Amino acid sequence: MKRLIIILSVPVLFGCVSYTVIKTIPDGAKIKQGSVLKGITPYEYGDRCLSYTSKTFTLQMAGYKDKEITLTKDSFYFSRLFWIPVLSWPWMFGYQDLYYFELEKSENPNQ
């Protein structure tokens, strides 16, 4: 029985990650979640959160206005229908494959 639980847990623990790529125009913007620097665009982000979870980030780049963005797990993942369905239902929706955001030039060149 213990072996069966382990076998059924593996797809849930490792197969329910949703990935997306965040790109900006222009490239090279800092991406922060709260005060934590996550990386520089283009940036690949992934997590194991449940469907319809939202994550908020701030895009920052010298000479451009800061832009707050929200990513929501609302894209249906058809392939997860073929996993052990009951276990994959909480993760049936994930992020879009790619998000593009255009940064707006700042009127204040010191920003």
Characterise this structure.
The protein has helices spanning 2-15, 85-88, and strands at 18-25, 30-33, 36-40, 43-47, 54-60, 67-72, 75-76, 93-94, 98-102. With 111 residues, it is of the alpha+beta class. The protein has one domain. The longest helix has 14 residues, at 2-15.
Question: What's the structural blueprint in terms of helices and strands?
Answer:
Blueprint: H1 2-15, E1 18-25, E2 30-33, E3 36-40, E4 43-47, E5 54-60, E6 67-72, E7 75-76, H2 85-88, E8 93-94, E9 98-102
Describe the structure concisely for a colleague:
Helix content is 16%, strand content 40%. With 111 residues, it is an alpha+beta fold. The strands form 3 sheets. Strands 3-2-5-6 form a 4-stranded antiparallel beta sheet, with no helix packed on it. The chain has a 3-stranded mixed beta sheet with strand order 4-1-9, with no helix packed on it.
